[in-house]
Structures are given as structure tokens and as C-alpha cells.
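Sequence in, structure out.
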Amino acid sequence: MVYFFGFLGGLALFLYGMQLMGEGLERAAGEKLQKILEKLTGVLVVAVALGAVVTGILQSSSATTVMTVGFVNAGLMNLKQAFGVVMGANIGTTMTAQLIAFKLTDYITLFLAIGFAVQLLAKRQRGKYLGQVVLGFGILMLGMEMMSSSVMPLREYQGFIDFIHRFSDNPLLGVCVGLFMTMIIQSSSATIGVLIAIANQGLIPLEGAIPVLLGDNIGTCITAVLASLRANITAKRVALAHVMFNFIGTIIFITFMGLFIKLVLAISPANDIARQIANAHTAFNVVNTLIFMPFTGIYIKFIEKLLPGKSEVISRKPAYLDDKVLVTPTIAMGLAVKEIVRMGNMARHNVEVGLQALEDKDSEKIKYVLEHEPVIDALEEDITRYLTKMSEKEMGGELSAMHTRLLHACTDIERIGDHGETLAKDARRMFEDDIKFSAEAQEELRNLGKLVLEASGKAIEALANNDKVLAQEAWDICRQVKKQQKEIRKNHIVRLNEKRCDPVAGFMMMEILINMKRVSDHSKNISQIVLGIF
């Protein structure tokens, strides 16, 4: 029992050390890595290379795959690009096994001391993160040493030896063990670490270890599958492509197990089982990727057949902005107006759906708003960047004033989108906590919502057509919103005092009223921009 607890403690330290390493590296370079992944995956070979590099740095294929599923769900990657990243992630994740295979146990305390000292004494944040990485690696190796020591007594237990040796005769059993271990631990690197710890004690030969690591590669797909459950059909196809990639690869390598073992022995030291397992892990993923790459197009069609359905991608990319026309600011300004109006209609629609969700507590409407809000944020960044580039060109006084007005409008519209998101979250909270408004309160909110939507709709239309009459109408409606919101607040306080309204619902009501008024305030700002009052 003591040895079992020692093994669990070692596994816990291994996982914690790996988490520290991953977090340190992600904080040091994670945001840059995301941007690189997003922009440079157009060519399959590049996508594979980036997937490998990013995973090697983050020390987690799961993190890369989940990130990729998110990009696909947001329309930033297509299925082919994402599959390239996934293949690369499988290669990158073998870096941990390669590090583990080095005989570094004599230097564990040195890694711990250096990592702690750097994290404590470093003045810059990046230095602290790098110290965290070294400290994490030391803890990881300490966990490996503990696991290896804990399984040492098993060398004398014939039942365990017989069970392990079955993997050589029955590879499917080894595959299942690796698959379930990885699904439970949620880390392929941890499963490989356990495998190396057992192998270091002479408990498992290479022929028995290979099926386990093949199953480990299938099991690691569970994270991507879970991440895709609430995503669109294309993101689900990425997860399926990941599973089938490793599943088909496992079948191929079990079929040609004898040849694969010869390859591993040819590229590994003769008496170093840890290095042989690490090299087998790397060789499987590299060779499997090389097998699949020429047939990627056919494979993608196969995945689409397995999981049919129309892909509904939420694109974050601008529809009208074109850098080529920046040399002609007048035309570029017109394109910017179109994009801002498109963004405005999206933000207004989010508010509309958020208000509907408040009334009927529809989870699909809440999901719709939460999925589309990042699109509005991304468009705001792209439009602002476009307008900033435009400011580098020579513009007349009138065009320059218009440029400034558009920047303000872009900010106001992004805020309208934020309030739409808050309304959707309020709806979710009401649904989860079973918060209900009185019929009177619901009617008041419904009427105020109609005014808010009318004001925002007229303001955006006024911006689209530079229509001062519509802008004035929007401004007038915003005044009505302000007046009506004050009356609702008074009525609501009366209901609270008379105990006709639940206090929890009362707080929620106040928050919703504030958000609705702020949507109106930003609509008023947009109308003032059109009227030239800002």
C-alpha cells in the first residue's frame, strides 16, 4: 500500500510539474503562439510544423488541439488547416517523452534550486515564467523518480509480470490499457512517463510498451472531443479527424509491428529502454503524419462523409476592408463605414437576441450571443487597425473629421456588443437560479427593449447613410429610453417595498435596466457622430 501511495504521489508531482512547465511557457509566449497559429497555417506543411513547434513549447497537445478547435469554431481555420496543426501537435507532444528519457535524475535538486531561485529573484515577468518552467521540469523529474521507485517491488510479483507480458502477445490489450489510462489521467505525456518508469525497472519489454503508447495516442484525443461537443460541425470534424488519425495509424502500426520494432531499435541505443520508448513515440507520430499528408484531401472528404452536415462557421474576418485601396482614402473610408455598419448590425442583433433570451430563457439564444460576441471584438480590432493605417495617408479636413468620427463609432458599437453579451449572461443566470420577474416587470422590460432596439437600429442606419434626420430620431428615442428607465426603476422600488418582487430578482432587474440604458447611451453617441455633435 505504501508503494501504491508513493506511485500516486509521484504521478501527482509529474502532472503538477508538467502543468507548471506548460503554464510558464504559455505565459511567456502563449499569445504570440496563438497569433502565429491563426495567421500562418495556409500551407499544410507549415501547419504541421507550427503544430509541432507550438505543442513542443506548450508541452501539451491537448492545449494546441483545443486552441485549434476554437479557431475552427471561430472561422479562423478550415478543416484542412486544422488537421495539419493536429498532426503536428501529435509530433510536438513527443518532446516531453524525449526529455524524460534523458538520464537527468541526478540533477533533480539542481533543477529545483535553479528554477526556484530564478522565479524568486527575476525582476522581469518573463524571467519568472522561465524560472517556473525549470522548476516545473524539476518537479516532473522528481515525480518520475518516485514512480520508478514505487514500481520496483513489482519486479518480484509474478502476477503483474504475466499481465504486462500479455501486451507482447496481445497488442490490443496493451492498446486498451494505454487508451483508458490516458483518458483517465488526461495526459498522454503522463502515460508515457508511467510507461518509462515501469520499463526502467525491467518490467515491460519494448514489444509490450509499443501497444500501450499507441493506445495512449488515441486516448489523448478525448480532450479535443470534449472541447468540440458544443462547437459547430467543422470543429466536431476536427476532433473526429484527430481520433481517426490515431486510430487508423494504430491499426497500421500493429499490422507491421515487427518492422516498426526494427526501425525503433535501429535509431535507439541497444540497452536504453527509456530512449527506445521515447523514440517509438516520436517515430509513430512522424511516420503516421508522413503517411497521411499526401492523402489529406481524400481524408478530409472521408471525415465529412462520416460526419455529414452543413458547416455554420462564424467568421471573424472583415467582409469589406481591403488594404489595397488605402492609397485612396476616400474609397477606403467608404469600405470602413460598410464594415462598421455590418459590425453595428451584428452588435444590435446580439442585444435583440439577449433581450429575447431574458424573456424566454432559451439556452440556444444565450449560446448564439456568447459565440458571436468575440466576432464583434475581433472586427473592432481589425477596423481600428485599418483606420490607423488610413491615418498615415494624407487626408483633407472633412475626411480627417470623418476618420475621427468612425473611430468613436467603432468603440461605441463594440460597447453595445458587450452589453448584449451581459444581457445573455443575465438570462443564463436567471435560468440557472430560477429567477422570475412579475408580469408587470416583464411588460415594462419588453416595452423598454423595443425602444432600445429602435434607437440603436435608427442610429446605425443613420451612420450607414449619413442621414441626419434618422440620427435626430434616434437621439429623441434615446431620451425616451432614459425617461422610461427612470420610471421603471421607481415602479420596481415600489414593488420591492410592497414585497411584490423577490429581492434577488430585484437586483437582476436593476442590472438589466443599467445595461439597456447603456445600449441607448451608445446609440445616442452614434447619432451625435452623424449630427456632428461629439
